[in-house]
Amino acid sequence: MTDDNRVVERTGWAPVRHFAERSVLGLAVVTAFGLAFGVLLLLVRFHWSPLQSLDRSVADDLNRWASGSDTVVAVLQQIASAGGRGFMIPLVALLAALLLIRGRPRPAIYLVVTGLGAAVLDPSLKALIGRLRPVVEVPVATAPGNSFPSGHALGSMVVYGMIVLVFLPAVRRRWRPWFIGAASVVVAAIGFTRIALGVHFVSDVLGGWLLGLAWISVTAYAFRIWRREAGHATPPLTDGLEPESGPDLRLAPAEGPVLPHPWAKGAEILVGWVFVFGLLYLVGYTVTRWTPGFDTAFPAWLQSFRTPELDRLSWWWSKFGDTHAILIVSLIFCPLALALWRQWRPVLFLVLTMVGELTLFLCAAAAVDRPRPPIEQLDGQMPTSSFPSGHIAATMCLWAAIAIIVMARFRQPWRWIFPALAVLMPVGVALSRMYRGMHHPTDFLGAALLTAAWITVLWFTVRPNAHAETAEEAAEEAAQVTHRRLEAIG
């Protein structure tokens, strides 16, 4: 008797029947989406006049609506960016890394393979079909390449769809409809923006959605076959691709209260913020009224070394301290920290550090109102005053907070890279800002004072490394928790 026959004898035919029913249903869904896309493709390819009339009418009406307001155009472009490759590729890469950290390689592979497939399908079909983009009365946006299908519609359907399938087990059952609904709203909004901005027809967006659904269906079906061949059950797709991964995918399943006595801690943080602001104002008032001689001489001396090559290098280096760079690093570090240590406390520490830095810088700069150095300023007129330097303070706070968190949670020698970055990054940003004539040396001093005082306040109130675990300890504890839960279910 074969192994398969023994399994059937023990469990009966019910699991086999369920698998067959789901397989037939899955194939029917894939076929339906594929046929719908094929019909739409033929209608577009052979220029079916009713579809062309609908496309042109909707494109013209939405263009008249959107072009009447710069604010509307800006909002539409911001929403559309959530469906662009510049956003979705880093998102998929980050989520795949989180899955690997949590010990879930199969869903990580699914994300990567499905995403790569969508990235290949879009340009291939556009080149094959060769449909030109809409020509509207008032162009408010441009996009490269051909029009059918919409790459934003296809990519958003695939990316947000597979995120739902992979992370659905981590969502409580009563919240799952809201989770799916939120993803659907995002996909629909992205598709709408592509039509309203005049870079796609309605049929382009519909084609992208249908092709995305077909591709997700194919890869989800293949994933379920992979699970069955590996000896795992194949529950309904409404439970997600890998239902047993739920405990591993929850952000911080075993963490207690992030901050005991949160109202008291909030009051302590607020008092500390006021103290730091007062200190900054006192120093800023002093250096503005009694400017040291070297404060102007040093930026003027750096100016004597200016060359086109150094100008470009200083521009790039100063970008490490601007809002976009700081936000990107924070958005990468926080999810990775949650995945590694399953604790909100280090994330809260970093978030409060950056929020406090931003508010302290803006308030102190407005109160002190110090003029920029009286030399040529390569960045032109800035919206804030000179003291303290926002670029330098943000860079200092970010890398100092990360170094504090990492040093307590890793034991390997490479952890010393982060204290080194906490020194090198701010120094590089400071030299670039003074070279470009945007700050005095005492503005650098103000940024250092802000960083030291504010992080000290948060260190004693938040205690970011309380109950700190190494990555290995956290992984071992999570594995034990998962094992106990699976035993209880069994």
Account of the protein in words:
It is a single chain. The chain is an all-alpha fold. The protein has two domains: 3-249, no CATH class; 262-475. It is built from 19 helices and no strands. α8 packs antiparallel against α9. The chain is globular. The protein starts with a helix and ends with a helix.
SSE order and pairing:
Layout: H1 3-11, H2 14-45, H3 49-66, H4 70-81, H5 85-101, H6 105-129, H7 151-167, H8 176-196, H9 202-229, H10 246-249, H11 262-289, H12 293-303, H13 308-318, H14 323-341, H15 345-368, H16 390-409, H17 417-435, H18 441-462, H19 471-489
Helix pairs in contact: 2-9, 4-8, 5-6, 5-14, 6-7, 6-9, 7-8, 7-9, 8-9, 11-15, 11-18, 13-17, 14-15, 14-16, 15-16, 15-18, 16-17, 16-18
Transmembrane segments: 24-48, 82-101, 108-129, 149-171, 178-199, 205-223, 269-288, 323-341, 348-368, 388-407, 414-432, 444-462
Pfam families: PAP2
InterPro entries: PAP2/HPO, PAP2/HPO_sf
Short descriptors:
membrane, PAP2/HPO_sf, 490 residues, Phosphatase PAP2 family protein, disordered N terminus, PAP2/HPO, mainly alpha, transmembrane helix
Q: In DSSP terms, counting alpha (H) and pi (I) runs of 4 or more, how many helices? A: 19
Count of β-strands: 0
**What is the N-to-C order of secondary-structure elements (H for helix, E for strand)?**
HHHHHHHHHHHHHHHHHHH
Q: Describe the largest sheet.
A: none
Percent of residues in beta strands? under 5%
Q: State the helicity in percent bands.
A: over 70%
Shape: globular
The span between the termini is 28 Å
